[in-house]
Amino acid sequence: MLVIIGYIIVLASVFGGFAAGGGYLAALFHPIELIIIGGAAFGAFVVGNSTKAIKATLKGVPECFKGSRYTKELYMELMALLYDVLTKIRKEGLMALEGDVDRPEESPLFAKYPRVLSDHHAMEFMTDYLRIMVSGNLNAMEIENLMDIEIDTHHHEAEVPGQCLTKIGDALPAFGIVAAVMGVVKTMGSVGIPPAELGKLIGAALVGTFVGILLAYGFVGPLGGLLAQKAAEATKMLECIKVTLLASLNGYSPAMAVEFGRKVLYSTERPSFSELEDHVKQAKNR
Q1: Most Cβ neighbours (<10 Å): which of 118, 140, 252, 279?
Q2: What's the pLDDT tens digit per position in 102-129?
Q3: CB-CB contact of 32 with 26 (8 Å)
């Protein structure tokens, strides 16, 4: 929703200001310029990226128009789940968790937390390392190193769509110049026509530069930055799981391990100690 509002502000400011200054909006309407710039940018996007990156970008763009799913409520649900898991381990032993981690979608323990269960990456990360814990022969330092490598890999993959859009945004002004140069070439072939007609052709050529810059800094570039922020949010959830499980491996109680995980979160989504404590108690009583 914020993306749409932002786009409306950009359009209203640019075109509204132009019209208020006495400009004619019809003079900016040149669909051929959009075809040249948009087509060239998309072609360069296809040439410069692998099939995997193209698919990830096309899948990621619609996510920009949705609100963030990484809210305080989601993180409280995650930490309540981690508390339940670690409490079960402490009371019944690691082997009691084997059935839950092998089939989390059928587990009554995980079923109490549907929002976390629906996050494929978080569930896979959590169950994989719980499975390692169940297998025994634990070395907290080696597991931490493995977690760091996996989180780093996940973050690099999640950054790809944002990087692709940023590169397209950087290229759009240049494609705008290409469209403008082509317009100038066309204009030069029309020398000798009345000045009024010549002025229209020159104006149409300059629209190419205008469109390229506007698309780059008003539309595509900001989407790349937004996708980078979403990638960081997804990584933060994995870091919360990592810190909580490692605290448990190092002998801390479930309540203290969850507190370690709470401290990792961004301040805008981090619940207070009392908020988390109340939520965990409510989850235990369900």
Answers
A1: 279
A2: 888 888 888 888 999 988 889 999 999 9
A3: no
Residues 6+ apart with CB under 8 A from 67: 1, 2
* Closest among 222, 238, 285, 162 to 6, alpha carbons compared: 222
Dihedral angle of Cα 225, 230, 235, 238, to the nearest 10 degrees: 170
Sign of CA pseudo-dihedral 266, 268, 269, 271: positive
Terminal-to-terminal C-alpha distance of the chain: 34
Residue type, position 128, single letter: D
* The two three-digit tokens of residue 127, written as one number: 């169950």
State pLDDT tens for residues 165-174.
Answer: 999 999 999 9
Is residue 242 within 8 A of residue 83, CB to CB? The reply is: no
Per-position b or e across 119-152, b if 16+ CB within 10 A of its CB? beebbebbbebbebbbeeeeeeeebbeebeebbe
Q: What is the pLDDT of residues 276-285, one digit of tens each?
A: 878 777 766 6
Q: pTM for the complete prediction?
A: 0.83
Domain ranges in the chain? 30-286
Residue partners of 149: CB distance under 8 A and separation at least 6: none
Query: How far, in whole angstroms, is CA 119 from its chain's centroid?
Result: 14
Question: b or e along 195-228 (b: 16 or more beta carbons within 10 Å of the residue's beta carbon)?
Answer: eeeeeebebbbbbbbbbbebbbebbbbbbbebbb
